[in-house]
Write a structure and sequence with these properties.
mainly beta; zinc_ribbon_bacterial; CPXCG motif-containing cysteine-rich protein; two-stranded antiparallel sheet; 5 strands
């Protein structure tokens, strides 16, 4: 598992997620632990490291 820190696209607080490095590509929705808004998270793993990470707002 890799702990990855990122900024919430709603409240701008730095939060973290645990990423399973055995899964090469993943997309899911997780609520911000500070403001509870839904965040679309996607990441890619290459050689057990994060090669891409994105956290996007679901609200327009």
């Amino acid at each position: 598992m890799i702990e990855h820190y990122f900024t919430c696209p709603y409240c701008w607080q730095v939060i973290s997620v645990l990423i399973d490095s055995s899964i090469q590509n993943q997309n899911y929705i997780e609520d911000c632990e500070v403001c509870c808004n839904p965040i679309a998270i996607s990441f890619q793993i290459y050689n057990s490291d994060i090669s891409g990470f994105q956290a996007d707002s679901l609200k327009q």
